[in-house]
Amino acid sequence: MSVAISKWGNSAALRLPKNILEVLALHIGDKVNLVQKGHTVIIEPCKPSLEELLAKVTDGNKHDLVFNDQKGNELL
Hints:
The chain starts with 5 loop residues before the first strand and ends in a 21-residue tail after the last helix. The protein is an alpha+beta fold. About 15% of the residues lie in helices and about 25% in strands. The protein has a two-stranded antiparallel sheet. Strands 3-4 form a two-stranded antiparallel sheet. The longest helix is centred in the N-terminal third of the chain and has 7 residues, at about 20-25.
């Protein structure tokens, strides 16, 4: 598939077709990494940081802490 490089302000931009976004599970506003290998550019989805993952934790989606005195056989 071939796409044209367009001007976006003082930068250059590529338009990603909807089917590629769907295959990569990307949405408008998602962050990606650009990796240059020789004369090739690779676009990879960013993995969320620990801070980004923890920011999504709420009282409604976290589990209760469970403590008990049971031990596995390997500790006996």
